[in-house]
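Lecture 7 notes: from sequence to structure.

We start with a single chain of 267 residues. Read the sequence below before looking at the structure.
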Amino acid sequence: MNGSQKIAIVGAGNLGIAIAKGIVEKGLRAPAEIILTRRHVHELAIYEKEGFLISADNKVVVAQSRIIFLCVQPNQIDALLVEIKSEITADHILVSVITGVSLDRLKDKLIPKCQLIRAMPNTAIALGQSMTCLASNGSNGALELVVTLFQTLGLTMIIEERLMQAATVLGASGIAFFMRYLRAATQAGVQMGFDTEEAQLIAVQTAKGAASLILENQSHPEVEIDKVTTPQGCTIEGLNEMEHQGFSSSLIKGVMTSFNKINQMKS
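Now the structure, written as tokens:
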């Protein structure tokens, strides 16, 4: 890719901004090489001060860029494609992070047929800690380029597109699910006597450590749990009470409820 060609973030909301910040944080591009677009462009003024380019003209932005991240809401995609269609060329790489919008739907709307990638990162991408799942319409060269980009922003996995809805729930919505656990753990810490800031720090670092043990040791969670539990100890007592109260069951039900909801949006 020509280094002078910019990256466009079309529909720069929370996820789009996180992608842009992650790209800059990892030194892949300077802020001046990334264009952020939004209907209400004044909402991007803070990022303009950081050096990002901002615009409300999606057609002009697409013409100036090669890699284009589509980050708009699902109900906005058809109008966006009509708007930018005349500027799309076969050399463009469109990366859609739009929930529930299939590659076939994008392909049918665009002539000439550009290179299409569907990606689902999460907001930890701003820190280079995303879990990003990707699927393509068969353009291996474009996929390799986009995978290389995302690999610097966390971990990546290439999956079949049929699994993209599940990846969205497990990897993107999953951020919120884990945050809710951290909130509950912090509240328990306060109840036991810690200040809120102390309890939160302990909970957050402990969660980070637990995840690191799985990643580094490539082990099953139960293996790591067995290392902590002792006969008649406080850990097994707490774990059993959580299970009696439906901890695992409620978590699985919550994830599956999100999965059922996202499948209603599938197109």
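The chain has two domains: 6-159, 168-264. Keep this in mind for problem set 3.
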